[in-house]
């Protein structure tokens, strides 16, 4: 039991650092680790990971706000509302879509994000320090608010359907659509998904698809890890952080491509069966 608790605390600490550094996405580490080191069912793995992620979001967002002042409520408020809506209703809708299509779209977003961040670092991006959306539209509330709500719904739904950390999509959305810098995107992403984690995690717990003891252990260790990750991110310049997040996005894209290829190979042929 001590060894098992030690592993869970280690998983929490490492996932907290990743979540604090990158503005979320710690589920990419927590989910496979819990699946490997525990006997939880797959739904319970996702539910436990979601519940434990609440501490990462809370502590990480607080550090970004207090130390760096990097929270953008202009886009964040709408995404927060949209993320809750997506968590309640959107996951079922997105889950009906083809998993192959969802993975292909995720790969495209990750590759686009990695490309933009690498071009930013090299000083070659034609929309560097800006959004792909025209600045005059981003200056109007009537455009920003509906757009941020829709993005929140999609990201929240996608995170629920695919079992991914919301930051993996929220940070690229904030950078590409709203033109915020990476530090602000990371802090805002963590704030946006705090209520989503709480509502989703408690819902999992009430229906028996989350282990509260494991979630508490992982979340307890994740809190200081998230603080350390956020402080590390704030200490890094935009270029360095961009390379870090771009590399993370590229690795995740490669991981999704490998899983997609394996999934296609496991499919029975037309003559099978």
From TrEMBL:
Subcellular location, record wording: Cell membrane; Membrane
Membrane-spanning intervals of the chain: 12-35, 47-67, 73-94, 101-119, 139-157, 164-180, 186-202, 214-233, 239-258
Membrane topology: Multi-pass membrane protein
Superkingdom of the source species: Bacteria
Key words of the record: Cell membrane, Membrane, Transmembrane, Transmembrane helix
Family of this protein: Belongs to the 4-toluene sulfonate uptake permease (TSUP) (TC 2.A.102) family.
Record protein name field: Probable membrane transporter protein
Organism: Actinomycetospora termitidis
Source species taxonomy: Bacteria, Bacillati, Actinomycetota, Actinomycetes, Pseudonocardiales
């Amino acid at each position: 039991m001590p060894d098992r608790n030690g592993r869970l605390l280690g998983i929490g600490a490492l996932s907290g650092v990743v979540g604090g550094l990158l503005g979320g996405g710690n589920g990419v580490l927590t989910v496979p680790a819990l699946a490997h080191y525990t006997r939880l069912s797959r739904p319970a793995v996702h539910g436990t990971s979601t519940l434990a992620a609440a501490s990462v979001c809370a502590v990480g967002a607080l550090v970004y706000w207090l130390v760096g002042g990097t929270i953008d409520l202009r886009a964040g408020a709408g995404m927060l509302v949209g993320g809750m809506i997506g968590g309640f209703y959107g996951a079922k809708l997105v889950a009906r879509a083809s998993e192959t299509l969802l993975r292909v779209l995720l790969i495209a977003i990750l590759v686009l994000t990695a490309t933009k961040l690498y071009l930013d670092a090299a000083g070659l991006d034609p929309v560097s320090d800006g959004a792909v959306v025209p600045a005059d539209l981003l200056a109007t509330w009537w455009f920003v608010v509906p757009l941020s709500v829709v993005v929140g719904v999609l990201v929240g739904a996608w995170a629920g359907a695919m079992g991914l950390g919301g930051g993996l999509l929220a940070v690229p959305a904030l950078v590409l659509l709203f033109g915020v810098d990476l530090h602000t995107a990371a802090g805002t992403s963590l704030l946006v998904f705090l209520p989503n984690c709480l509502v989703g995690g408690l819902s999992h717990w009430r229906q028996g698809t989350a282990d509260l003891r494991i979630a508490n252990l992982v979340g307890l260790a994740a809190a200081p890890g998230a603080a350390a990750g956020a402080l590390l991110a704030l200490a890094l310049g935009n270029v360095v952080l961009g390379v870090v997040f771009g590399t993370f996005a590229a690795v995740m894209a490669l991981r999704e491509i490998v899983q997609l290829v394996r999934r296609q190979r496991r499919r029975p042929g037309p003559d099978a069966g």
